[in-house]
Amino acid sequence: MKQFISVYDVITSNNGNINNAINQLVNEALTYKSNPLKDNTLGNHLRLGMLFLNPSLRTRLSTQVAAANLGMETIVFNVDKEGWALEFEEGAIMSGNTVEHIKDAAPILGSYFDILAIRTFPSLKNRADDYSELYIQQFIKYAGVPVISLESATLHPLQSLTDIITIQENRLHKAATVHKKPKVVLTWAPHVKALPQCVANSFAQWVNAWGEADFVITHPEDYALDEQFTKGATITHNQAEALKDADYVYVKNWSTYNDYGKVYENDPAWMLTNETLALTNNAKVLHCLPVRRNVELSDEILDGPNSLITTEAGNRVWAAQAVLANIIKTMK
Ligand code: CP
């Protein structure tokens, strides 16, 4: 694996068969979960630079733990709080607020670090800019070292890999159903703020590429996602219909894609409760966190027996460790 920006970066490690490549990566992650230090010298004398243009709890700490398990050194830089304001536009006349061009900063970062990991959220103001992934693409272009996305403008691949790991791990625990194609539902949920589409886009991209689920996406009419990520899924605006017989329900808010970055409605009826969960096949519930309790997801679900959410957050370590290990092996 040369970089980790989207699901398609896993293909390089498995002769072009994406389903096999995802399953292999999931198995590697679960092997690390059962034996975290099995490759504890693989990353010796290698340095990971983690750049945050936006806040994080899980992504930051789980990736640091993963790197430590592989014997790597990690340096974290909160670019948004401690760095110069970066310019990303080619040919920009830098007479405004930006102080340093990515063309100048990225090669220097590439000389300090063996791998760069970057979190850069979308503006939610200009869809064309956000969906061109300008910021992370400029890092890739100018850094000269492998780049890992810690969540970019449109995708969150470490989260999505974790989500597949968590579903697969749960299926393996229920040996009787492991051969049945699970029904996986991604449901929109209410929120008070305009949130990126990254987690939903990325989950859809990974589940579609994985190809081992009967995949349904449900959202209010105005919340359609970009078809490049959802193609292959069944899409319905009827949440109850979507939830029927579901085995896994992924709950997430996102803002509008078409009239970009807006909150059109916050109908609390879309929040998953025990009553709506009763429509499912006793489904397990996932959410990437952080979550607004009793807005996006109810206490009774979050604290109830069907939640896989804490396990899912814990699995972030093993996803990051499998990705780092694959990139290090490609570098060697
Ligand atoms: N799920 C997730 O990416 O969490 P953080 O924003 O805390 O990293």
TrEMBL record:
Binding residues annotated for N(2)-succinyl-L-ornithine, in chain numbering: 151, 191, 252, 292
Catalysis: reaction(s): N(2)-succinyl-L-ornithine + carbamoyl phosphate = N(2)-succinyl-L-citrulline + phosphate + H(+)
Top-level taxon: Bacteria
Pfam families: OTCace, OTCace_N
Record pathway: Amino-acid biosynthesis; L-arginine biosynthesis
Keywords: Amino-acid biosynthesis, Arginine biosynthesis, Transferase
InterPro entries, A to Z: ArgF'-like, Asp/Orn_carbamoyltranf_P-bd, Asp/Orn_carbamoylTrfase, Asp/Orn_carbamoylTrfase_sf, Asp_carbamoyltransf_Asp/Orn-bd
Ranges where the Aspartate/ornithine carbamoyltransferase Asp/Orn-binding domain occurs: 200-325
Binding site for carbamoyl phosphate: 56-59, 84, 119, 156-159, 288-289, 316
Domain spans labelled Aspartate/ornithine carbamoyltransferase carbamoyl-P binding: 20-169
A biological process from GO: citrulline biosynthetic process
Alphabetized GO MF terms: amino acid binding; ornithine carbamoyltransferase activity
EC number: 2.1.3.11
Amino-acid biosynthesis among keywords: yes
Functional summary from the UniProt entry: Catalyzes the transfer of the carbamoyl group from carbamoyl phosphate to the delta-amino group of N(2)-succinyl-L-ornithine to produce N(2)-succinyl-L-citrulline. Is essential for arginine biosynthesis.
UniProt cross-references to PANTHER family, sorted A to Z: ORNITHINE CARBAMOYLTRANSFERASE, MITOCHONDRIAL, ORNITHINE TRANSCARBAMYLASE, MITOCHONDRIAL
Subunit field text: Homotrimer.
Family: Belongs to the aspartate/ornithine carbamoyltransferase superfamily. SOTCase family.
Record-given protein name: N-succinylornithine carbamoyltransferase
Taxonomic lineage of the native organism: Bacteria, Pseudomonadati, Bacteroidota, Chitinophagia, Chitinophagales
